[in-house]
Amino acid sequence: MHSESKTLPKLIVLLGPTTCGKTEWSLRLAKKINGEIISADSRQIYKNMSIGTAKILGVWEWNGLRRTYVVDGIFHHLIDFLNPGKTFTVAEFRDRTIKHVKLIIKNKRIPIIAGGTGMYISSVVDNWHIPQIGANKKLRQSLEEKSCEELTDLLGKMDQDIIKTIDQKNKRRLIRALEVCIMSGEPFSKQRKKGEPIFSILQIGIDTDKELLDARINDRIDNMIQNGLVDEISKLLKQKYSWNLPSMSGIGYKQFKGYFKNEYGLEKAIELLKRDTRHLARKQLTWFRRDQRIKWCKTYDEAEKMVDEFLAK
Question: Residue numbers for the site described as Interaction with substrate tRNA (predicted)?
Fold first, then answer.
């Protein structure tokens, strides 16, 4: 395995929980090593959803025959490209990322995946083979009528293993897992088969103190409100994007549903967003801590040194 990894193309992954500083570190690193960044953030993929997803502001520029999102001179991929009415699967992320990585390497640059969506990152690091099972509208509609408890029971009968890891309060995930089980005739948990490694990968995690993370989450959300998050959501609703969409049922948006329906005030919505973002950070850390290959760094300099050594091999 080790001898093989020397000949495999190199890929750097920078990961960690929300607000830990991935954006800043990835930009510094990309400038130093002539890198391009592939975003692994399941919320920042959407257009017109910049404030609630804490998306770094860039400009779309023509780069040869394709348009690319550019931040501070650095090319970014898989960010700000999808209509909020559309869905984007882990399988699509994996396939597109692999293409981007290969193209970046071909252009004599270093690919850096940066983000906090664990499933996205694992799908590339472990080269998951995920069957492309499309959405089945009729099936989804019939499942939509059931409660999360009923969906969990149903899924448990088809796939015992997935019940241990799936978020049982996330209706969309439960429906998707059931859809895959029913359409493929196989348990959802068996669908993600690990493939042979295609890249030599260095995974760096940003190690941030819990209190600091919580303080940053509060600051970030206060800034989002000042920067016009409520207005951003209002515009999306005017464009007839429904609360059931994956984009609108994500953190940063769904917490305001009750506010827009006059069920509670703005203070309550902000409080919910802060709480749910803290929960998200814990969940992300739980996912990443399972992977022993991740090297955790407290400072940027530590990470940069590790990258230099990895690239010099």
Answer: 117, 140
189-210 pLDDT tens trace: 777 788 999 999 999 999 999 9
Same domain, 22 and 82: yes
Extended strands (E) in 162-256? 193-194, 200-206
User: Does 297 show up as a binding residue in the annotation?
Assistant: no
274 is in an annotated binding site: no
Same domain as 14, residue 76: yes
- pTM of the model as a whole: 0.90
Q: Is 21 annotated as a binding residue?
A: yes
Do 27 and 166 share a domain, yes or no? no
To the question of whether residue 265 is assigned a binding role by annotation, the answer is no
Bridge partners of 168? none
Does the annotation flag 22 for ligand binding? yes
Residue pair 287/86 in contact (Cβ under 8 Å)? The answer is no
Instruction: Fill in the DSSP letter of residue 218.
Output: H
Per-residue DSSP letters for 136-171? -HHHHHHHHTS-HHHHHHHHHHH-HHHHHHS-TT-H
Tens digits of per-residue pLDDT, 245-254?
999 999 999 9
- The reply, when asked if residue 19 is annotated as ligand binding, is yes
Kindly state the tokens that stand for 296: 């955790």
